[in-house]
Amino acid sequence: MGFSEFTSGLLENAVNEFASLPGIGRKTAFRMVMNLLKRDPADIKRFGDTISKLHNEIRYCKSCHSISDTEICSICSDSKRDQSVICVVENIQDVMTIENTGQFNGTYHVLGGIISPVDGIGPADLKIDSLEERVRSNSVAEIILALSTTMEGDTTNFYLYKKLSRYNVLITTLARGVAIGDELEYTDEITLGRAIKNRNPYQV
Amino acid sequence: MGFSEFTSGLLENAVNEFASLPGIGRKTAFRMVMNLLKRDPADIKRFGDTISKLHNEIRYCKSCHSISDTEICSICSDSKRDQSVICVVENIQDVMTIENTGQFNGTYHVLGGIISPVDGIGPADLKIDSLEERVRSNSVAEIILALSTTMEGDTTNFYLYKKLSRYNVLITTLARGVAIGDELEYTDEITLGRAIKNRNPYQV
Description:
The structure is a homodimer of 204-residue chains.
Chain A: H1 9-19, H2 26-37, H3 41-57, E1 59-60, E2 67-68, E3 85-89, H4 92-101, E4 107-110, H5 128-137, E5 142-145, H6 151-164, E6 170-173, H7 189-197
Helix pairs in contact in A: 1-2
């Protein structure tokens, strides 16, 4: 059940905007607007201005296509990071997910999607040319393919491998195996099969 | 796990704003911002402007204190509604919930809360004086007390009853009983006890 009766058009507009967000129903949207209305006017204004700014001021790094406040993002312009390693990811979320592991000190390249004929997404729709350009013009030692382990991810990996293997660059992928915390009983056979094949020396 | 690393301060601000909403974590907030970024610039701007407008343009009806675009809301100024019946509710959500039933054709009075000593909310913090003023100055025939069935709700009901019973007005409350769709086995004893005591003739 949602709300269909509003005593205010402005309130209705605000609820409609929040309800347009993914996973937000009209009741939740209403609760959000009510929460905003209880705040200081200055806080509400800052919230609105921040969203309005998004369309004017958000930029994408010219090198890796991640979101950036500057022409070249803070990772691509950081001399303390290994600029010779490029981790290829599908989207900006993945950049942050990997950054949060604290295990990676190279740079990224955001494709903006993966090859998916069903959705009509081909190689030309992705930032593949600019990746090739980065490999060609800079001294890149390694490309890490960090795409989803789906059919589309594998297709994209293969396409990128074909395209980039002509350059003098090491192409790697993320290790596949049994996830930490997973029970063997519930691990799918393909993952388990690969994990046995690619077993590692036991480390104490 | 939340995101702690951002390549853009503006993105981080936007995520923080959404994450300040009730029930929204940082990952969900991030997904919301990403969803906005995929939209038309005009759509993003309208979203932001709608929120900014809230603090300038939202008004409350001078009579019933519900949200309104005008000085007197569309319900209080509607001559087709029974202006002699006032349904007293805790907040604006409750107005809409009752409106959505389509079963009520009177007016409302939004208290803005209920008496709750624990939270430091006393009668003076609620719109009780203006309710009394409405009863005194207009020809009000009935006051429906539609507050929560909690201890605070009962306390407020009792306070309002004491205050308003001196006027020539019928004071009623919502019917209490077993909710439609509820199984008897899982209905609490107090509700069930009241439902038996206040049983109604069976209607075919």
